[in-house]
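Order emerges. For instance:

***
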Amino acid sequence: MKVRHLGRVDYLTTWQRMQQFTATRTAHTADELWLLEHPPVFTLGMAGKTEHLLAPGDIPVVHADRGGQVTYHGPGQLVVYALIDLRRAGLGVRDLVTGLECSVIRYAADLGLTAAARREAPGVYVNEKKLASVGIRIRRGASYHGLALNVNLDLEPFGRINPCGFAGLAMTRLADLAPVADVNAASAGLLPHLLQSLGFPSVVS
């Protein structure tokens, strides 16, 4: 497993890089985790309905090829893209989703928080509010897209959509729940749990 810390990068460019990586990877290509932030953007999944975009305003909207409905990405949100050969890793789609969710649940526990996943609405919740969202795509037996964890981002844009297709779904962020300074701190705390939950004991720099 290679881990790449990419900083703040454009959504469309990064999405295209994920597609290219997945299309050209071979049986010998190392799996990768990309940890990053995006400038403000709304993304609609493949089954996404525009009716869930209530008032996007000046924030761009991108129709992506992941699962799920509509979500928001912006500065202060830790995004984790999981580029994994699922067959080689012995993971099913449900295993991947559960692993991503469990990594956040375990990290939240480190911070003294009780978090939980919901089978009917993928993601991680604290006190009935959504802390992290999951949306993935599988192509040629390999995954891309992944997880978005709200750290200290402005939550206002979530009010312009029905998050993940659920009207009135309340969102939350780590900054309001625990002493987490920023995305870099969250990245350092979450990464060991990501590796453990996905079954990768070591990292290649």
Notes: The first strand starts at residue 2 and ends at 8. The chain has a mean pLDDT of 93.
